[in-house]
Amino acid sequence: MEAFLHPYQVNYIRSKINLLIGAFYFAGDYRVVDASRENVIQSLYDLLPGLTPEQRALIDDAANVRDKDELKLYMERLQPYIIPFPAITAAEIRKLFPKVKKLVLPDLANLDFSKITYLGWRDIATHALYIVYPLHGKWIGVECQYVTGAKKVSAMCTWCNRGYGGDGVALVTKQIKNRQIVDGYTVVGNHICLNSPACNQGITSTEELEHFLLRVK
Ligand SMILES: [Zn+2]
User: Fold this and answer.
1) pTM of structure
2) Ligand 1 centroid to 193 CA: how many Å?
3) How far apart are CA 199 and CA 17, in angstroms?
4) Which of 109, 114, 116, 139 has its CA 20 to 30 A from that of 181?
């Protein structure tokens, strides 16, 4: 069976199974559990159209997971079928940021590419957040700026839909040319996790990420 799952889809599957485990614990009514199972499987079919019979059998097994131990085993079964983030070298990354003089590079050697939907890293000295992503099969690199609030605020990350207090999520902005005004600029911003590996563990859709990148690239 060929690899057919992107890392964000694996996160989505995990989040749905966690809901199902919750139903087992709290519902106490087999009809509620059955309905949850049906909902979960339907949402996974919607996420993954065009499954082969083998792939479908693997996905159907998600409905049989009843607790955290079984979830761990099930996620291990998915592992061989994950399409990792495409390989990229430091030289290729540098080429994406020709204007950045002293580019800080991500720690490529210690990244698990099977858990990455987008490559993100920070330069703490310049308050820059770098994003690298294969948008429609073409590498794009975006240098953004971030501001961390002096006050402790809790914000939701637009990309992974999770919230953190403190400076876990920050307003990340990119200045882009505004074609309607001569020499005009517009600032595009999203609240995003500053810890990109953590964000990648929670991201279940690429919609907001791609929407942002399409606007600022
Ligand atoms: Zn996030």
Assistant:
1) 0.91
2) 4
3) 19
4) 139
